[in-house]
Amino acid sequence: MTFDLTTIRVFAHLLGVTVWIGGQIVLVALLPVLRGLGEDAPRLAARRFGALAWPFFALVVVTGVWNLLEIDVADRSVGYHATLGIKLLLVALSGVAAFVHGMTATPLTRAVTGAAGLVAALGAMVCGVMMVT
Known about the structure:
The chain is mainly α and 133 residues long. Helices cover 86% and strands 0% of the residues. The chain is built from four helices and no strands. It is elongated, with a radius of gyration of 17 Å.
């Protein structure tokens, strides 16, 4: 075992995924408490989380591309390609849903896009695990 560029690349990818997904889960868990602190508390917490989360989402995308450049994708199975396609779609859906979630003022739209973004991110993570096992 060596500490090398591969270690850094995979670590950075997993760190980005951890912040993006874990942060969303923590915010959902804290939402009842935040609502009790005042009308603006959930929005302010979400805005602060977004300032942290979006750079980590970018890290996920950049290291994801880097991961693909490090393997011979052409040598992979049809199942791998299908899983990769689904994963890329879910990553895009997660990002778009989170963006819409942050831009809307409608409670129903916020609820739907927040849930869709988290479910899509978790699905992308499952696909990522499937691709390496």
